[in-house]
Amino acid sequence: MKLSAYKPAGKPMSFLDEILIWLKDFEPFGKPKNEEELVKQIAQFLIARAKTLGRTDIKVDVISSVARRGKPDLIISDKVGVEVKIIRSVADRDRLRGQLERYRKDFPYIIAICYDKKGILRKEPLEITDPNVRIIVI
Predict the structure, then answer these.
(1) Cα separation, 13 vs 38, whole angstroms
(2) What are φ and ψ of residue 90, in 5° steps?
(3) Model confidence over 41-93: pLDDT tens digits?
(4) Beta-carbon neighbour count of residue 94 at 10 Å?
(5) How many CB atoms lie within 10 A of CB 57?
(6) Are 61 and 75 in contact, with CB atoms under 8 Å apart?
(7) Could you tell me if 17 and 130 are in contact, meaning their C-beta atoms sit under 8 angstroms apart?
(8) pTM
(9) 44 and 37 Cβ atoms separated by less than 8 Å
(10) E strands of 39-108, at which residues?
């Protein structure tokens, strides 16, 4: 596991920036079978990273698929909602846009982690103007 230590010069790092830096090191274990598997992998990665760095203040909650309706897949310290999406079609991308808009009302920060092996987001990216909503494509 590599540990990113990047810190933007001249300004304190926000909680969102810190989590984004951690996620730059994430790589899925093989091809995920479904979103549930990918959510578990990301949660395990974040929990391990927080433990490795001694960040006992960071809590990662996995929202069960039963309770998830209207909620993101992961919640980090009640500050960051994380939606994990396997992008198979433009419809998946469009559904993600709506989810991000809904979650933004409940969380200061939103991260979408998109597994996009078909390159749909490269061809037709989501245009997000809110600086507190970020998209990571893996």
Answers:
(1) 27
(2) -65, -30
(3) 999 999 999 999 999 999 999 997 766 678 999 999 999 999 999 999 999 99
(4) 12
(5) 8
(6) yes
(7) no
(8) 0.88
(9) no
(10) 60-62, 74-76, 80-86
